[in-house]
Amino acid sequence: MATEINGWTAPAREVLRVTTSTRIAEVDAGATPGFDGDKQLGSALLEERGARLSALQELLYANGRIGDHRSVLLVLQGMDTAGKGGIVRHVIGHVDPQGVDHAAFGSPTEEELRHHYLWRIEKALPRGGQLGVFDRSHYEDVLVVRVHELVPADVWGARYQEIVDFEDRLVDTGTTVVKVLLAVSKEEQKRRLAQRLRRPDKYWKYDRRDLDERALWPDYEQAYQAVLDRTSTERAPWFVVPCDRKWYARLAVTELLIDALEGLELSWPPAHFDVEAERLRLERS
Ligand code: AMP
Ligand code: MG
């Protein structure tokens, strides 16, 4: 029996986790899986859970300072306008920026193109004690690259297993990988693009190429489906987060991160000095 805690009827990690029957084209991007509340409750809860996330991140950071090499990596993927930047701002925004290793991946530079596609990814991995955030990621190398045939099919085709192996190594070496596909509907994308064309404060976000990508929606759906089918593993599962309602996506990603951090079972590092002696020293000073 599911218990209702502040609007959640089931844990986000359970309702959002990809299964073998997940079909990205059939996901209801306007839904709020596992959450019974409305926007008002969701937004209020986000503040509360954001504080919890922040406390857990501080624990991670504190342990990193004493040599714990573990880290958490949030991988954000999604079509243009899905709200990757909003997640960074409104979810990651709750934690101390010093503890965040953030990286955004756009079209590779000339130098990056001369290297293996994982080269720039490895360089951006979170350090021990850090919360890493990837706004786009190595998955672009089987998404945009596949859709636009930027490399031959046998090359991108080999990458799924390579990515699985790569993430397996990450997990082995202490990084908890949380992979989130933000699912926006095609209609909602149109509304968000229209807003970018209507509001002067949004013009800067408008990219003419977004409409070219939008025209390839079915190809992207197919490419995303392959990602879910071939790279959602026990150790590094994908979560599909409906994001037509931004407040829900933010709340859900917060829960996924809290869950990942709680899984590390961290406690405050013990004092590396004689507490009593230091208190005395301070008193006499
Ligand atoms: P944005 O996230 O709006 O800054 O856009 C970044 C752009 O870079 C998107 O159009 C991505 O598809 C593109 N991009 C990211 N990674 C790659 C890659 N490995 N190869 C080609 N294009 C990429
Ligand atoms: Mg863009």
From TrEMBL:
GO terms for molecular function: kinase activity; phosphotransferase activity, phosphate group as acceptor. GO terms for biological process: polyphosphate metabolic process. Pfam families: PPK2. Keywords: Kinase, Transferase. The keyword Hydrolase does not apply. Residues 45-263 form the Polyphosphate kinase-2-related domain. It comes from the Bacteria. The keyword Transferase applies. This is Polyphosphate kinase 2 family protein. It comes from Speluncibacter jeojiensis.
